[in-house]
Amino acid sequence: MKKLISAFLIGLMIGSFLGFEFYGLIAKPEVIIQTTPVLGVYFSPEGGCEDLVIYWISRANVSIHVLIYSFTLDSIGDALINAHERGVEVLVVFEKGQISKYSEYPRLKEAGISVRNDTNPAYMHDKVAIIDGVIVLTGSFNWSRSAEERNNENLIVIRSTLIASIYEAEFQRIWSESI
Q1: For the chain, percent helix, then strand, then coil, each to nearest 5?
Q2: What's the DSSP call for residue 179?
Q3: N or C, which end of the chain has less CB nearby within 10 Å?
Q4: Contact present, 76 and 53 (Cβ < 8 Å)
Q5: pLDDT tens-digit profile of 3-33?
Q6: Which residues are the active-site residues?
Q7: Residue partners of 147: CB distance under 8 A and separation at least 6
Q8: For residue 11, what is the DSSP state?
């Protein structure tokens, strides 16, 4: 059985390297060949995800582009407003079904940040921030108190212009379709 599993995994790796499709994903050789520095992997509850998001937002110099499902944390809203006031381009797409009186949407809009509602008839379930076209924050971590203090969630921080450009293309697609 171990030989069968090993053979399957080796075949999967070789197939991925050559660009074969597995489970609906195409692994492109340039993505696999590049060494992608993962700066950290974090888990909640109480794993510091909120502080990490704020830390990276505070380090932005040029741009912060966000796709977010649930965003109710004032602390992250404050960090985005501060970045905007420093002259950083901040663009945020919210899942329209998650905009409520607790959402950061109206507060960011009032502060002059460009915000949009996703128009996908299904959920826009992304939790992504692309910072300066180099840093990507992604995972299951919603920007909410429940995600930080109660839920099992995760956040991964990646430094890669290649990975950031892939996420940026998706951000631009969703941004252009949003209102």
Answers
A1: 40, 25, 30
A2: -
A3: N
A4: yes
A5: 433 443 344 444 444 343 333 344 444 444 4
A6: 125, 127, 132
A7: 44, 49, 70, 141, 153
A8: H
